[in-house]
Structures are given as structure tokens and as C-alpha cells.
Amino acid sequence: MESLIKYVQDEFVAKKDLPEFSAGDTITVFYEIKEGQKTRTQFFRGVVIQKRGTGASQTFTIRKMSGTVGVERIFPLNLPAIQKIELNKRGKVRRARIYYFRELTGKKARIKEQKRK
């Protein structure tokens, strides 16, 4: 039964051409917002805390600081409202899920940039 679900997801869910990113990377997600009849594009720039799931149900969590308040948002990877994702900076972290990043403030909340190969 699970292989049937996976088959349907692979065949019928439209795949988007998005860049590869992982935890610690700083990305900008451009997504569409509908307000009544109008639509506009808004962006959310922050550090990827985690990627979770596989296939069509994959999600990723982004965290940014808005003033002194931390804001996190979870995006499904196959969300139709996502227009594009820009990779701003590759971060060098040792873990796949950097929950410890939530408690860090100031200079400790910086992530080293990964050297380009």
C-alpha cells in the first residue's frame, strides 16, 4: 500500500526545479500571497533549521530574527505558492537539525560560511 502511495506521489505531483540546500544554509523563499482578488509576492529570508520528510511530503523550517523576536516558518517543498528559492549562503554545521540555534543570540548566533569547492 505504501509503495502505491509513493508511486502516485512520484508520478502526479509536479516537481519544481529548486536548488539543493541543507541545515545551516541561508536562503530566501519567494512565495505568492492571495489577498482577496489580488496576488503579491513576498519573501522570507532566514537560516534553514531542518529538512524533514521524503518525496512529496518533504518540508523545511526557516528561522529569521525580526527585531528581537525569532520567527520560524515551515514550508512544504512542493507548495504551489513557492515561486523560487535563492541560496544566499552555505553554512558549515555538523548537524542535520540545528535546534540549538534557537537559544543563541548575538555573535554566537552566527554560522560560519562553507568554503566553495
TrEMBL record:
PANTHER family, sorted: LARGE RIBOSOMAL SUBUNIT PROTEIN BL19M, RIBOSOMAL PROTEIN L19
Coiled coil: none
InterPro entries: Ribosomal_bL19, Ribosomal_bL19_sf, Translation_prot_SH3-like_sf
Organism superkingdom: Bacteria
The protein's role, per its UniProt record: This protein is located at the 30S-50S ribosomal subunit interface and may play a role in the structure and function of the aminoacyl-tRNA binding site.
A Pfam family the protein falls into: Ribosomal_L19
Protein name: Large ribosomal subunit protein bL19
Keywords on record: Ribonucleoprotein, Ribosomal protein
Family (UniProt): Belongs to the bacterial ribosomal protein bL19 family.
Gene Ontology CC terms: ribosome
